[in-house]
Design a protein that fits this description.
Order of helices and strands: EHEEHEHEEHH
Low-confidence stretches: none
Largest sheet: 6 strands, mixed
Helix content: 40-55%
Strand content: 15-25%
CATH topology: Rossmann fold
Number of strands: 6
Number of domains: 1
Number of helices: 5
Structural class: alpha/beta
């Protein structure tokens, strides 16, 4: 059965996930280290993991399957989910694919190195209304694609 796994600590599209998942009657696991207020939706499971840098990632990677969707901006977690055959979306509605994950991880490492060498922070574009719209479209498409694959 198709389920959605959300890397919840810094996810700006939880409400959008809830709306789409409710429409499709899907189970959602929002995984975090704490600090998230549980919602009332009975199909939403708030999973609080132990403190630790990768505890939420480890839980998601251990539970996600090939017919599931991961929502994360964490590239190492995305790679782990892809390795299990899951569909991975980031909050801006971009599909993270096998053919792009290697380059994305390399760019992440390069950016981290540049920050360490220069002492400057890397700038990221803000999260805009169009990003929410693109995310909703991408999530809907991913659900439809997975449902066709499993029929």
């Amino acid at each position: 059965m198709l389920e959605i796994f959300v890397d919840g600590d810094a996810c700006p599209v939880k409400e959008e996930v809830e709306r789409v998942a409710t429409r499709h009657d899907l189970e959602v696991h929002i995984v975090s280290n704490g600090g998230l207020r549980p919602g009332r939706n009975p199909r939403f499971h708030h999973v609080i993991v132990a403190e630790g840098a990768d505890a939420a990632d480890d839980w998601i990677a251990a539970h996600i399957g090939s017919n599931d969707i991961a929502i994360t901006s964490d590239l190492p977690l995305a790679a782990r989910c892809l390795a299990k055959g899951a569909v991975v979306l980031n909050a801006k509605g971009e599909i993270v694919s096998e053919d792009r994950i290697g380059m994305a991880l390399a760019m992440r490492d390069l950016s981290r190195h540049l920050r360490e060498v220069t002492g400057r922070e890397t700038r990221h574009a803000g999260f805009a209304k169009k990003d929410r719209s693109r995310f909703l479209d991408a999530l809907e498409s991913a659900i439809q694609k997975l449902r066709r694959r499993t029929q």
